[in-house]
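Course assignment 3, question 2. Fill in each field.
Student: A.L.
Task: Predict the tertiary structure for the chain below.
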Amino acid sequence: MNAVSLQEYLVVSALLFCLGLLGVIVRRNILVIYMSLELMLNAANLALAAFSRFNNNLNGQVLVFFIIAVAASEVAVGLALIVALYRRRQTTHVEDLATLRL
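Answer field:
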């Protein structure tokens, strides 16, 4: 049976983080940017859980649990802000939201 090594977890985590970073830099839709930020957060969670597993220490996995709980509340607030901006401006493009004056 082939066990997955720590290096393979970290490579997947780095790829996910880079994919999220690319989405933040390249995309212009605020929803896609927000999803890319969440992908970067989950990549960091994967690395933290992998380090925790390979060190036989549950502290990292408990921290991941709390990060996911905070991220759930962050998603609710972030999506509420995006909906409010969309109702005000009728667009989700970042260029159109550059100035927040009425």
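Instructor remarks: The two ends are 62 Å apart (CA to CA). Residues 6-97 form a domain with the Helix Hairpins fold (CATH 1.10.287.3510).
Grade: pending
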